[in-house]
Amino acid sequence: MSNKEYWDKIYTTKTPEEVSWTEDYPKMSIDLIAKFNVPKFAKIIDIGGGDSRLVDALLEQGYTNITVLDISESAIDRAKARLGQKAEQVKWIVSNILDFSPPESYDLWHDRAVFHFLTKQDDIAKYLHRLTQMSTRHLVIGTFSPSGPLKCSGLEITQYDEEKLKTTFGKEFKILECFTANHTTPFDTVQNFTFARMSKK
Fold it and tell me: Read out DSSP for the chain?
């Protein structure tokens, strides 16, 4: 089964209440994005945004140039259905980030869903290439911490602490803040994340 088939199956067989990453309101991400104080017309891309409610929150905050990228068309279709007419205000891209050819640069890149699923150095390098290719100015990233899960949805993940994020992104980005935080899943388990906010050097 390909990655796309795998994630499409997840989103066609499970409700938001049955997947661990669901947040009713993505407060951590919204707060970190707000700290950059970018204008409301700034170009923001949410990597692996899928059915996340981040796009809802960004629209409510008045941001007008939002792109959501996800490997699963089923996930994006769910988000569009939830948003209704508001979905027309968003650019939707169905793609694996590793195959993505960016049509434009972005002011702010957000990823709470994809990066820690990359376990091969070649794939991590491809991801970093896409990030720099898009001349991204600001970065918000959330990954599982060393105290977090070793797997998600049955897949191996890579855990990150601040030092490992600095080693991975430090050539291009400066970490402005980094910390760990707990996420409580819809089924009341707790996952520990490392969150970082970075800007281009």
Answer: --HHHHHHHHHHH--GGGSTT--SS-HHHHHHHHHT---TTS-EEEET-TT-THHHHHHHTT---EEEEES-HHHHHHHHHHHGGGGGGEEEEE--GGG---SS--SEEEESSSGGG--SHHHHHHHHHHHHHTT--EEEEEEE-TTS-SEETTEE-----HHHHHHHHTTTEEEEEEEEEEEE-TTS-EEEEEEEEEEE-
